[in-house]
UniProtKB/TrEMBL annotation:
Pfam families: PadR (PF03551). Residues 14-86 form the Transcription regulator PadR N-terminal domain. It comes from the Bacteria. InterPro entries: Metal_resp_DNA-bind_regulator, Tscrpt_reg_PadR_N, WH-like_DNA-bd_sf, WH_DNA-bd_sf. This is PadR family transcriptional regulator.
Length: 108
């Protein structure tokens, strides 16, 4: 999938992945890959800056833990993140309907 296609949609996808349980960065990458049927194979240089941006914006909270002797930062959705995710889902529904209407007139 082209990186340009993700522009504007990556943040809600990340928030959706951590919606039900806190996850560390690598688990988020794996969940995105799995949920997308292998299409979203994000490099760490894309994911980790997005996680930091979402945390600075107050949509994610993180904490450090040690698992198997390794330190990991685990991210979870905040209440502001829950609202942002709901907004992102609605924006996606609208965007999808618009694109479908243009690309497949009469079939939307």
């Amino acid at each position: 999938m082209k990186a340009d296609a993700l522009r504007g949609h990556l943040d809600p996808m990340i928030l959706a992945v951590v919606e039900h349980e806190p996850l560390h960065g690598y688990a988020i990458m794996e969940a995105l890959l799995e949920r997308s049927g292998g299409e979203l194979d994000l490099p760490t240089g894309t994911l980790y800056p997005a996680l930091r941006r979402l945390e600075r914006a107050g949509y994610l909270a993180s904490e450090w833990s040690t698992v198997g002797g390794r330190k990991r930062r685990t991210y979870q959705l905040t209440s502001a993140g829950t609202k942002m995710l709901a907004s992102g889902k609605q924006e996606w529904i609208t965007f999808r309907a618009v694109v479908e209407g243009v690309l497949r007139p009469g079939q939307a």
